[in-house]
From TrEMBL:
It comes from Alkalisalibacterium limincola. GO terms for cellular component: plasma membrane. GO terms for biological process: xenobiotic detoxification by transmembrane export across the plasma membrane. One of its GO terms (molecular function) is sodium:proton antiporter activity. NCBIfam families: efflux_Bcr_CflA. This is Bcr/CflA family efflux transporter. The chain crosses the membrane at residues 49-65, 77-96, 102-123, 135-159, 165-185, 215-239, 251-269, 281-299, 311-337, 349-367, 373-393. InterPro entries: Efflux_drug-R_Bcr/CmlA (IPR004812), MFS (IPR011701), MFS_dom (IPR020846), MFS_trans_sf (IPR036259).
Amino acid sequence: MAPHSIPRWRLALLLGALAMFGAFSIDTIFPAFPAIGEEFGASKLAMQQTISFYLVAYALMSLFHGPISDAVGRRKVILVGVAIFALASVGCALAPSLEWLLAFRVLQGLSAGVGLIVGRAIVRDCLDGPEAQRLMSHIMMVFGIAPAIAPIIGGWILGVADWQAIFWFLVLFAAAIWVATAVWMPETLPPAERTPVNARSIVQGNRMMLSNPDFVLLALAGSFNFAALFLYIASAPAFVMDLLGLNEQQFAWFFVPTISGMVLGAFTSGRLAGRVGAHRLAWLGFAVCGLAVVLNLGYNLAVEVPRVPWAIVPMVLNAYGVALVFPVLTLAILDLFPTRRGAASSLQAFISLSLNAAVAGIVSPWVSGSALLLAFTGALFSVMAFLIWVLYLRRNAPVGPQRGERAVVGPLSS
């Protein structure tokens, strides 16, 4: 099957499902935190490390998924990564102690990023301009469903079985995705376009990309913008059960509206691709995130105890804004390095995931005991993202004809 012959809807479903690994690996086990902690005698802080260990491994390996796919092809890397994820999930289900569970969580992290990272490169292998933005938005719509349904599925499973059954579910999920990829996913990077890879070339390539100020600014803007939302995702056990007073089967109160906002934002981005300039679309996304910050701070300053549904409304707006911004910034990054799209996707993911790991392992445990602290910390991340975005725009603003014109990079020029 030629890469351009696969129907767009099928490609979006496949890449979206592959990107779900990360969210499923994090969110499905949230309802089981108390049960796992009780069985292994682990504190809430220790249980939080099941997320941070996973994310650190995810971030480190993300540096290699893209370059390897640039060298050997996209399809092989995805199939191997999904197979390793399935085996790691078996290990988690059979783990006899917290230490073994953490070890297999690391192995999950090493493999789970392959779909999201390589999938971004596949989009640009197949499409350009508004079509690429539209497909990226469709993938986000599929991907966005995962955080909404994962904790619900985890809660349902926990209602009829023990916590190990959650990891057996992940094994079945990975097996289904592996089969679908093997049957329907074509190779999108011809051998003639592949780039040899070794440790030295990866280091040199990353150094070259990090020396590009536009890449750094775009990656940081996207990372901090998403971190404002991820802070609440990483803090979900404390936010949902401790602060909102809900139980293990009520995570849907947080995740369904929030991720619905992300899916709606991705749908809006796809509909507006080619009609509204990417530059303006990114501005709209940051404006919506700013509105979410104001509402979140205002609400938590006004009440002593947050309650649903009002405590969730700012999360919905924030997710909507993040989904508007993300496709624009990601495509701009990939277009900076047309011959190293896999490597660029990897380094972008590494920067974002490193920040997310710090949020999950360091920031969240410190602030998740207070709704107001969560709101202020999320606001800080959003403000930092916006300021970095403004700095990027100033660097790429057109200058006088005496110095030559400089256009905004990639899709932001539309």
